[in-house]
Structures are given as structure tokens and as C-alpha cells.
């Protein structure tokens, strides 16, 4: 007995690949000005604030990618990833920036202090504290970005939910932390541009590791 069109494994792989390619293309278009600036910037400490400005479009674009990938329809013959991405960008850009911009500000301050640690005479224990603060802020912000991309809550509630699920679900926290470490490794070993070109796959992986959190929010906090 033959399967209905669009239900076979090859069809699902093709549909997923198509969705990822479209989302990646739109992500690249949405972050193109920042990506161009990142490419020309060096690794000089004086360029850190400019790099933060260049990274501002990444937050709304990543939110739109999460929205589009999460809403891939069960009917694989009815794929509209471009429309989903644009709708997600329109709905969530401001909420994403409320999370992303403060995170970039924190990371910029920490990066500047680390870059000038010798001249400033900052003690090692203080540097370790700053790195821990930056890591914790990034973990919470990225998790909050997933929440704000898929649900409608007040900004304070988004952050409380992110902290609640990170503390209460170690598997989710470890999954997000692992993806952040992988992103940091790609950035350090290759470049920020390479990481941005892998954004759709990163967003898909982020949805996978936060799936228990997404299900928990839907069950407990969404009527």
C-alpha cells in the first residue's frame, strides 16, 4: 500500500531541507548589514562596541527563525517558511530586542574589561566572576529568546520563566549551554560570519534542546 504524498521519509527530509535553506537565506538578508560590518572588523579590542552594534539584528532574526521552524506544518505539501519567518519577525522583533540588546551591552562591558585586564590591573577572581556573569546572562537570554519567539508573555514573566525552567530542568540548561559553547568555538576558531551562516541549523537545534521547556510552558501557562 503506497503512502500519501508528502508522508514518506524522503519527502520529510526534502521539506526540512527546503525550510532550513529558506530560513537561512532570510536570516542572512535580515542580518546582512551587521554581517558585512563583522567581516571587515578585526579582532582589535577597540572594535568590540562596533561588533556589538553589528550583532543587534541577530536577535530579531534568530527569533523569526525560531518562529518559522517551530511552525513547520504537519502537511508537508503546504510549506510557507518565508511567510512564517516574516510573520515571526513582525510579531517578535521588539520583544527580541528587549532581550538581545541588554545581553549585548553586558557582553560588551565584559569583553572590554577582559581585553584591557592588564592595563586596568583587574584581579583574576574578578575576571572569573565577570566571565561567569556573562555566561549566565547569555544562558538566560537565549532561553528567554526562545520563549518570546513562541509565546506572548510580559517581559518580566519571560525572564522568570527562563530562569524557572533552566533551574528546574537541568537537561534543558545543559542543552542550551552546549549549543552556546559550540557557537563560541565556531566564533573563536573560524569567525562570526560562519556562525551566522549556520543560523538556521542552530535555531533548529535550539528548538530541539528546549522542547521539554516549550511543552511545559504550553501545558502549565498557556490556556
Q: Mind explaining what this structure looks like?
A:
The chain is an all-alpha fold. The chain has one domain. It has twelve helices and no strands. The model has no long low-confidence stretch (mean pLDDT 87).
Q: Layout of helices and strands, plus pairs?
A:
Layout (H helix, E strand, L loop, with lengths): L8 H22 L1 H9 L7 H7 L3 H13 L10 H35 L1 H4 L3 H27 L4 H14 L1 H20 L2 H6 L1 H11 L1 H11 L2
Helix pairs in contact: 1-4, 1-11, 2-3, 3-5, 4-5, 4-7, 4-11, 5-7, 7-8, 7-9, 8-9, 9-11
**DSSP, total strands:** 0
In DSSP terms, counting alpha (H) and pi (I) runs of 4 or more, how many helices?
12
The run of helices and strands is HHHHHHHHHHHH
Overall body shape: globular
**Roughly how many Å apart are the termini?**
40 Å
Instruction: Catalogue the unreliable spans.
Output: none
Helix content estimate: over 70%
Mean pLDDT: 87
Strand residues, percent = under 5%
Total discrete domains: 1
Q: Pairing-aware structural class of the strands and helices?
A: mainly alpha
How much is the radius of gyration in Å?
A: 19 Å
Main sheet record: none
